[in-house]
């Protein structure tokens, strides 16, 4: 009986040891990545998050998407959860360039790397690395096309994105750097529509009451461009007023193909997501030094070249 | 009450004395400090940095690389070949398809348009022509084509973009007006410049070269 008892105890101990060992092995093999995204209401961010998850899973990592619903407090909760649950890396698409800094720092201080995707943080020490579209240069190029399309004279409206997001200002600054050199091109109204399609439609409808004679609308993203275009169709002015967007979303590309929008700037969320996951992988393998900022090219999409582009720059 | 020789009571005299000393002290302290906002201070410093970096690049680093830049037609012929590795001829700043190239050559003015001049280079089978921008000089071609100035060297993206703006402004204001005053169809010119191409689109007909130097030979 004593021998049987001993054998039983030995068996239990061995099983426990094996179980613990396997858990440890699983932990080292399967790294976990939290993908915290500003909003899943916009298809562009859905594509960014899904691509990051697929890329992470294809490399053998466990990945989970957290939706911040454009709310910095909710984003803060996601960071607290990610730290508490022991995630190994965070891919962040920030809700606010300033407001998200404190959230990202929580993870950095807990020893978890943070790789920003698309939206910048205004503090270089708040992230391990930031992978962003070269929005400024894209809008410099778009600004050139805009001026040529208007024949260097005319009136226009600018619809800005979220005022707390750096992309809003990078795009606006790049555009104005070119357009403001041409004195006969005048901006008659500049208003934020928060990167939102419905809001852009309402804002432009209201602006058109005061300025019915505009020649063009420049929008900080495609959702607003589509909303603005909808307002122009409703007012019967879509053939006279040109609309320019930014993103390369599915409906914007379709609209350019069918003589709707005049142009957009294609971003490549797939490249951004893949680079962020690749950086995470390098971090897991021991790399600690990353470029503070990595820029991803954007490309001008017009009726002349739209046939070679897919939405979101899918390749 | 004790009075001095001017019949001023000593209490009043003391108050007057301290009042005057106080006023002088306030005046001196106020003028010892120059109160400026931190933002404007940073902006001023950045502006100076950007000007220095742009000048050093335009006057020192860029000319050295331009001295070995390829002749335009040879470069275009190489880039037009299928499966050609563009990285051996040009530079990339970002992840993506955009490549920047430098050229150096001598050609003849073919036509003068509102926003560019067309210049013919080479002869026979080696001939080609390029648009040289005279209005739309706003991109990163001049900054990025040499590969001698990187975002990592400059630090901040806003500063990096401001360098491009300075370089373009210099060309628009110092090189172009003088050139446009004298240029005529048929003239021979020497040019150095930079251009960008998208690998996805290949060598297109309508790209423009951003000039760095334009010299009318005859």
Rounded average pLDDT of chain B: 90
Please provide the ordered H/E string of secondary-structure elements of chain A: HEHEHEHEEHEHEHEHEHEHEE
Q: How would you sum up the major sheet of chain A?
A: 6 strands, parallel
Fraction of residues in helix of chain A: 40-55%
What can be said about this structure in brief?
Chain A has 315 residues and is of the alpha/beta class. Chain A has helices spanning 2-29, 43-58, 72-84, 101-109, 135-149, 166-179, 197-210, 222-234, 250-257, 269-284, and strands at residues 32-37, 62-67, 89-92, 114-117, 129-133, 154-160, 185-192, 216-219, 242-244, 264-266, 293-296, 299-301.
Overview of this protein structure:
- Chain A: It holds the Pfam family Peripla_BP_4.
- Chain A: Residues 1-25 form the signal peptide.
- Chain A: Residues 33-287 form the Periplasmic binding protein domain.
- Chain A: Keywords: Signal.
- The complex is a heterodimer of chains A (315) and B (218).
- Helices cover 46% and strands 18% of the residues of chain A.
- Chain A has 315 residues and is of the alpha/beta class.
- In chain A, the strands form three sheets. A six-stranded parallel β-sheet of chain A has the order 2-1-3-4-5-11, sandwiched between helices. A four-stranded parallel β-sheet of chain A has the order 7-6-8-9, sandwiched between helices. Chain A has a two-stranded antiparallel sheet with strand order 10-12.
- The longest helix of chain A has 28 residues, at 2-29.
- With 218 residues, chain B is of the alpha+beta class.
- The radius of gyration of chain B is 30 Å and the shape is elongated.
- The termini of chain B are far apart.
- Chain A binds chain B through residues 134, 136-137, 140-141, 143-144, 147-148, 173-174, 177-178, 181, 268, 271, 275, 291-299, 305, 308, and chain B through 93-98, 115, 136, 138-140, 151-152, 155, 157, 161, 165, 198, 200-201.
